[in-house]
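Hey,

The postdoc asked me to send both predictions to you directly instead of through the lab channel. I've kept everything plain text so nothing gets mangled by the mail client. Protein one:
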Amino acid sequence: MYRAVWQRRVFIQSFKTSAELKDRRVVVTGLGVISPVGCTVHKAWSTILGGGCGIVQLEDERYNNLPCQVAGLIQEGKDAQKFDLTSHFSKSELRSMAPATAYAIIAAQEALQDARWFPEEEKLKQMTGVAVGMGMIDLVDVCETAEALKKGYNRVSPFFVPRILPNMAAGQISIKYGFRGPNHTVSTACATGAHAVGDAFRFVQRGDADVMICGGAEACICPLSIAGFCRLRALSTSYNKTPEKASRPFDKGRDGFVMGEGSAMLVLEELHHALSRGANIYAEILGYGLSGDAYHLTAPKEDGTGAILAMSRALKDAKLHPHDIGYINAHATSTPVGDAIESTAIKTLFGTHCNKLAVSSTKGAHGHLLGAAGNLEAVFTVMACHTAWLPPTINLDNPEESMNLNYVPNKKQEWFGGIKRFALKNAFGFGGTNASICIAEYREK
């Protein structure tokens, strides 16, 4: 009997501890970006605020017979040369990793340097985790290896399987820095990056880690993937000669999304842990909402139920109300159906508050990074909360009359009003998977 009473007390104490852990505040202390609009956070944010665009025409002749011939490629330097991974990794290192993994490592390096977090003590490494997602594996690698196998078994690389496993970006980062906290991977199509950030937020909030490096990576621009999405009629096909105009969220002339590539990483940290070491704090993560449409493989439910549930649950988790939100970084990919449904969801949930709400999509500038979209755009949402500048929706020349929201058309806007800046970041994926993250300006309570 004594043992039973003791076990009950332990259970009650554990329950109380879990409840108390939910009050742990989670802040953003580091950011890293490699993207079509810039290969550092500073460059990417400057390009976004300036209304720049990183979408280009695909010059490889293999794309000549495909309906879509534009994409958001990672470029660097004054001459906008294609990004060269050999300047960052040795040949032997590149043999063991897919390009998406390499992008994740580069973005993680910048984020960790920004956060000044390279722990050497074992107990600190054990409380530092990684949550990195990937939407699609490297299709080029799969095709090339399939061809190699036709020539002989020994032509198949021993690194083939590790290169195509979605969790290898998280694994490589964990190994590189010796992080022994949660090692977590998400693959939820175009909601991947947002889910990775949200899950990392929960890991820190509940005490599974004090620091998490989180985000997503994608590098799947190739003729096969372009062809596949074209067959779905998902990609833009009307602007092959004017690629900078191809991605146009919320605009009447939108005809599909533009694929992009890259990675973005955030360092999330428990507040007292960050303050104790004098870390720079960009913003605070307040809430995380998830939902399923339970409707269709590729199309969202017409009434926006999935988006409404994700946003409302993020608000509930953050203990906020719709009228507290000043900005929404939309998922809006530039598809005729998706953008309209997201607008409907926003108008339904926020009602009369919509006239005080700003909504924008930065995908006009960098395209849709699929599994790395939600995290890249979360970085821009963090920067909006931090700097009080709202990123524009470029190429928004003719908004639909029924979608009458402030979409921050073509030029950045200063974030006015409100005692404190609160934002939502939306991300939705094929299969009806949805995520919304509540991000706020950091202020000490």
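Protein two:
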Amino acid sequence: MFTDEDQVSVNIQSSWRKSQQSSQESRGCQTRTIHSAESGVQTRSSVVGSTQTELQDHVTTQFLQDPDTVLHLPGLKEFLDQVEGQVIRELVKNSKSHAFDGFQVNWEEHNQMVFCLHQLQHPKALERGLHITSVSWSCTGAVIACAYGRLAEGDWSNDKSYICMWNIDHGGLNPKQADLIIDVPTAVTSLCCHPKHPALMAGGLYTGEVIVWDTSQSTDPVLVQTGMSADSHREPVCQVTWVPLRNKGEFGVLSACSGGRILLWTVNTEQGKCVLKSAFALVQQQIISSSSFKGQGTGTVGVTSLDLSPWDPDTFLVGSEGGLLLRCSLSSQTPAAVPSECFSVPLRTPTVFSFRPASGPVHSIHCSPFHRNLFLSAGTDGLAHLHSLLQTSPLRSLRVSDTYVFKVQWSPTRPLLFAAATGQGEVQIFDLSRRSLRPAATIESGGVGHAATCLAFNCQNPGLLAVGKTDGTVGVWKLSTDLTEQMPTENHLLEQIANQVAE
């Protein structure tokens, strides 16, 4: 029998079980907190492509399945036997043909032959109406140096002038503000940058002085100069050029003037002056006569142009006011038939050969960098003459202009290409590999009366050509690859031209 105490105990246990059951049911319904997050997935782009094929004929299908069966096609073997001899003859003929020698496929789009990159000018020079008299690229090809003067009625005026320099590779180039301006007390008639040192350049002045500038010196760029001494020129200097001396790595300056004197200077930086090493005089009676010229009298021959051979540092060429074209030697020991005129060294005559004279002054001469015997000359007759050192008469003469030709120069990369600056303001570019005598390209800029007085190819960057004009501007022109890349047979064609016999 259950007592009251037992009944109470049963009720308490029953209540505890219900409580536990209720607690378990509550926990069973509760879940943990769910955390969520968003993320992106990056996939590669897809490309859809398709191809189109032609339906195969039954012969192609048969060949793909069994190539040997095609050889048994009716009439095929007979046809191949019939045409075999003719095909072989044509292949042999084509292998010996030269119809496509030098042909190069141009896979690029056709570009303009020439276009202007920069039009450089010095405002003060423009205000005074000064002309560009000479341009020269530094040996690095980065800097263009421009000389100013005035060319009027065939003579140089004695005015204050400038030398301006622009760095073409500089990103912030200002065509109206030169990177360096050198004030010069008189007109600069000739300018030539050093072939090895980018900071050095030599110049000739209207007064007859020769100066070497060092552009790395910020205060006074004049390195050495001849001054107005007994050894210096007495007439305007028409040309200056650097000459390699016997001491390896050293260069002298060769200068010429309209008075017929050609002087070789050494650069003495310790004394701060140019020292006269050799002096030459061109005397009419000592010039070796050709069939069309007979030297008479004892007068001197006025020099108008000069160029040093890149093949032989002892040989240089001279053009004169009277049209004479002479081959000369720096090692000549023949005394000149004129008084020494108080020079510190004896005067010698350099002439070793005389070519057929031109009809007027020879303004420019340039030796070929690709053939030791070829050179160009140009002047007042408006023609560009191609000469051989071994023949008296020109090999060819090309009509360049109806007026004067002031400058002519070979391309540094194309053996058969040269450019000529004319009095009409144009620059004509000729390619001797072409059958046509017309220019391969023409540079036209400026108005009437603005002659192109000078030009210079950039030897380090042959795609650049600088052109100076009488309007006081210098144009830097970009040449297309057609004018700069050498053709496979170009040297061979140049050799054929050199071996021609002049008429």
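Summary for protein two, as requested: The first helix runs from residue 4 to 29.

Thanks,
C.
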